[in-house]
């Protein structure tokens, strides 16, 4: 088994992602590759584009705020990090992976961490072209309506690359060529290693350019991709434009899969969200993170669902659900807030202005309005009266409230945790409970009502006294 793993690491496909830049034009302290696009960082989107080619090695070349980038990507346990302490060009960046790929004999795919719109199918086709033609290098290119500023790629009729010329070095005739270099490459690693270590910085910028290796490799082929896929992100405007492209892709896929989007332009959906057929998503709804929306649901209008599961045939209206689970048949909102890994059982209703935090609600239970359930565990068919509050915080620690099956809290009930209310307990309206209640009881903690006929506030009594005739 160990021998097989060793062979796998030496052959196959490695990817190197250039993620060392600061991104000055983003005007942000955050490294450019960590800005979000449809729920994933730019670099995570780039990694996701390789899912169809099954790379055996994944290397991120980091530099600016390297530790911050490493921390953000720590969950990707198969991602290796290589540091580029000085940013001296693309060729210099790829040179940094040489020690990590010692003994490697496969192909190296070089991607840019700020080019997040590449489709997995494009990467797959590029690799197929590279392998089929036994290329030393394959370059991803695009035909641009306005190629100003881009390096031009010159090919013969078979798309064999003859040369790459930077825009500033092109003659007027050469600038008519609309095929540009997208900066995405696939190399035969052994062929590249004969040239890469000897790359020189003989240019005005004193940088090592990866394009300089092309003239010494053969054969080299170009493969065209749609211009929208190779767009780089250098500022917030371009990030916004990329978001529009990504959202259009996500929504098109959902619409064709049997999901209804009402006023799709007002809806946003992250790329990791799963939505099953026969779901209706109403206007002004936002689905975030790794949320899963099961079949038959109506989400919205005006709802936010984040990293949550919404069970079959549930309805979430004008509400926020984050880091929680709603089982089938839930009725949520309007204006409910469910958070903190709460679990809402089947056929529950969490209604107007109810907040549920880190609580488990049993099947068929009902909290219709104006309540707070925090650190609580409710059994099945519990009815929570309006104004019920679980007083779970003593100023230092959080405590748990437990309500048994079929318990009922009257309006304006306060449960001072820790407390356990047994099954089939009825709590009278206005009660504040501080001690456990056995099953099958009525619990009442009211001050006896008193009435005072003719009573008036002091200031009114004083005025009346002044109006009385004097003896």
Write the layout of secondary structure elements.
Elements: H1 2-10, E1 13-19, E2 36-37, E3 40-41, H2 42-48, E4 57-62, H3 66-72, E5 79-83, H4 90-95, E6 107-112, H5 120-132, E7 137-143, E8 152-155, E9 161-165, E10 179-188, H6 189-193, E11 220-224, H7 236-257, E12 260-261, E13 268-269, E14 274-275, E15 280-281, E16 286-288, E17 292-293, E18 298-299, E19 304-306, E20 309-310, E21 315-316, E22 320-322, E23 325-326, E24 331-332, E25 337-339, E26 343-344, E27 349-357, E28 360-361, E29 366-374, E30 376-378, E31 383-384, E32 389-391, E33 401-403, E34 408-409, E35 414-416, E36 419-421, E37 426-427, E38 432-433, E39 442-443, H8 458-467
Parallel strand pairs: 1-4, 1-6, 4-5, 7-11, 12-15, 13-16, 14-17, 15-18, 16-19, 17-20, 18-21, 19-22, 20-23, 21-24, 22-25, 23-26, 24-27, 25-27, 26-28, 27-29, 28-30, 29-31, 30-33, 31-34, 32-35, 33-36, 34-37, 35-38, 37-39
Antiparallel strand pairs: 2-3, 6-10, 7-10, 8-9
DSSP strand tally: 39
Q: What percent of the residues sit in helical stretches (DSSP H or I)? A: 10-25%
Largest sheet: 16 strands, parallel
CATH superfamily of the largest domain: Spore Coat Polysaccharide Biosynthesis Protein SpsA, Chain A
Family: In the N-terminal section; belongs to the N-acetylglucosamine-1-phosphate uridyltransferase family. In the C-terminal section; belongs to the transferase hexapeptide repeat family.
Pfam family, one: NTP_transferase
Main location: cytoplasm
Subcellular location: Cytoplasm
């Amino acid at each position: 088994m160990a021998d097989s793993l060793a062979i796998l690491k030496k052959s196959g496909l490695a990817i190197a992602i250039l993620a060392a830049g600061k991104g000055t034009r983003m005007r942000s302290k955050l490294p450019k590759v960590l800005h979000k696009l449809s729920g994933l960082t730019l670099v995570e989107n780039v990694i996701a584009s390789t899912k169809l080619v099954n790379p055996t090695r994944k290397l991120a070349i980091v530099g600016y705020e390297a530790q911050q980038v490493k921390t953000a990507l720590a969950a990707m346990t198969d991602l290796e990090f290589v540091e580029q302490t000085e940013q001296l060009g693309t060729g210099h960046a790829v040179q940094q992976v040489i020690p990590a790929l010692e003994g490697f004999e496969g192909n190296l795919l070089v991607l840019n961490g700020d080019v997040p719109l590449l489709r997995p199918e494009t990467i797959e086709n590029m690799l197929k072209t590279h392998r089929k033609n036994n290329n030393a290098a394959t370059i991803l290119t695009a035909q641009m309506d306005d190629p100003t500023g881009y390096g031009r790629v010159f090919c013969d009729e078979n798309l064999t690359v003859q040369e790459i010329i930077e825009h500033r070095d092109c003659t007027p005739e050469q600038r008519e060529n609309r095929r540009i270099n997208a900066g995405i490459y696939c190399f035969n690693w052994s062929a590249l290693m004969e040239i890469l270590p000897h790359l020189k910085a003989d240019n005005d910028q004193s940088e090592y350019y990866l394009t300089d290796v092309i003239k010494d490799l053969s054969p080299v082929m170009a493969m065209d991709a749609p211009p929208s896929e190779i767009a780089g992100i250098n500022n917030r405007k371009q990030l916004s434009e990329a978001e529009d492209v990504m959202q259009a892709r996500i929504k098109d896929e959902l619409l064709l899969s049997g999901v209804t989007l009402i006023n799709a332009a007002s809806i946003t959906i992250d790329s990791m969200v799963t939505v099953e057929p026969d779901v209706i998503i109403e206007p002004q709804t936002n689905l975030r993170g790794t949320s899963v929306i099961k079949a038959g649901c109506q989400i919205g209008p005006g709802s936010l669902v984040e990293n949550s599961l919404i069970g079959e045939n549930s309805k979430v209206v004008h509400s926020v659900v984050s880091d929680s689970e709603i089982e089938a048949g839930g009725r949520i909102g309007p204006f409910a807030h469910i958070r903190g890994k709460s679990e809402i059982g089947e056929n529950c209703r969490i209604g107007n202005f109810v907040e549920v935090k880190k609580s488990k609600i049993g099947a068929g239970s009902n909290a219709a309005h104006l309540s707070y359930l925090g650190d609580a565990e409710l059994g099945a068919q519990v009815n929570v009266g309006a104004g019920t509050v679980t007083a779970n915080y003593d100023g230092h620690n959080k405590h748990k409230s437990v309500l048994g099956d079929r318990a009922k809290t009257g309006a304006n009930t306060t449960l001072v945790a820790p407390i356990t209310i047994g099954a089939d307990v009825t709590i009278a309206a206005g009660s504040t409970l501080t001690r456990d209640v056995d099953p099958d009881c009525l619990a009442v903690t009211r001050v006896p009502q008193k009435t005072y006929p003719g009573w008036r506030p002091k200031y009114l009594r004083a005025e009346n006294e002044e109006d009385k005739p004097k003896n």
